[in-house]
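Support request, please re-run this one:
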Amino acid sequence: FCTGFPRTLGQAEALDEICELDLVISLNIPFETLKDRLSARWVHPASGRVYNMDFNPPQVQGVDDLTGEPLVQSEDDKPEAVAARLRKYKDAAKPVIELYKSRGILHSFSGTETNKIWPYVYTLLSSRIPPVLSD
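Re-run finished. Output below.
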């Protein structure tokens, strides 16, 4: 599961009132992968610069690249908080997934790496959206 919109059945119902969906994409990423990625996020509070210890680490661990000031981890990004958020999201999103599945518009993709999932998502989208031709 992956956070996105709509996240709850109420949001899905509200969305139905303003538009008709014909395609919904669900990215199924293992719980541990999501927890590890979100827990690796650190921020420089004064500037809002975000670092990820796995994908975009600072040059010196725990220190902002430009100012040398300490980085902080939000309470929401600590592993225990991330795990609780993901469990709550999964429970809320399950009926949304079932709704779109029952309508036959849900397309699910599973994996742990963007570069491996994206080609499949791109193929689906390319088959549904006509290309934009430049003049």
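The first strand starts at residue 24 and ends at 28. The first helix runs from residue 9 to 18.
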